[in-house]
Amino acid sequence: MSLARLLILLVALAALPAAALAGDLVIGTSDGPRHALVAPVTGGPQPTVIVLHGALGTGEGYARRTGFAQAANARGFAAVFPDGLDRQWHDGRRGAPDGPDDVAFLKALVARLVADGVADPRRVYLAGISNGGMMTFTMACKASPLFAGIATVIANMPEGIGPCSPRPIPVVMINGTADPMVPYRGGEVGLRGGRGEVWSVERTIEFFAGLDGCRKPQSEDLPHRDPADGTRVKRIAWSGCRPGTSVTLYQVEGGGHALPGQRSLAPRLLGPSNGDIDAASVILDAFAGGG
After folding, report:
1. Has residue 281 been placed in a domain?
2. How many beta carbons lie within 10 A of that of residue 91, not counting itself?
3. Total structural domains in the chain?
4. Rounded-to-integer distance, Cα 254 and Cα 234, Å
5. Looking at residues 123-144, what average pLDDT do you find?
């Protein structure tokens, strides 16, 4: 290699974020090479959470800003942050444009993580925010045997993705009742609609409660730790579910399209966040507890 080419390579490597050098996983697919940022833990195959970013996000950005990487590491989980092509996921919701085969990509990602000795195949979990949460529900419908549990934030089941008959599975949902992007009561996605349709939160959570054989919900108001944000959290958990399953909804009363525990990016447009819970910690606690 010439000195000039070596200098060019060194400059290019220096420009890459440290996380990319440490764990940028590349998987070949029919849609071209796909990427995921991997933050493994030592000691062989470990419980692993795959976190799907929202529309316009990136895996690296969500690893840095959502708290999932830290929450996973604190509980001995590997954390994986894949990138959707064009910064979005094709979750298959009715009325949305067609796109790449993200179901095939995420299946291949799980297989690769297991083959590389990163993930314990019995404890692979999937979590997603907004568009990533809708993709999480799609994966539950189309590939539930791969996952030990799922969790979503500010997302509902996509309308029109076809037959959905997953195996019983632990589920955590976190939704704001005043979300202007993904309506709590269901319907068209987007500030002005036109970005596909979703079920209501109630229909989504009751679907999984029925799937898991749960009997009835019990609710409790969580401590109001941040009175300045104007929101409250009600935790609704279903009892009598099949062994190994659980269904829990964190209803953020007055909450907008924001990740609890993190600052809202545009509160005037997307509504307030909530400081009473930290979404990443709540979800990883549920996964670490086996449900």
Report:
1. yes
2. 28
3. 1
4. 11
5. 98
**What range does the domain containing 96 cover?**
25-288
Q: How far is Cα 51 from Cα 24, in angstroms, rounded to an integer?
A: 15
Single pTM value for the model: 0.91
DSSP category for residue 157: P
What lies within 8 Å, CB to CB, of 248 at 6+ separation is 171, 172, 173, 235, 236, 237, 238, 286
Mean of pLDDT values over 162-183 = 95
The enclosing domain of 116 has a CATH number of 3.40.50.1820
SS (HEC) of 238-252: EECCCCCCCEEEEEE
pLDDT value for 234: 98
| Residue 85 covered by a domain | yes
Does residue 8 lie within any of the structural domains?
Answer: no
- Answer yes or no: is 12 within a domain: no
State residue 86 phi and psi, 5-degree precision: 55, 30
Q: The tokens of 194 are what?
A: 């036109």
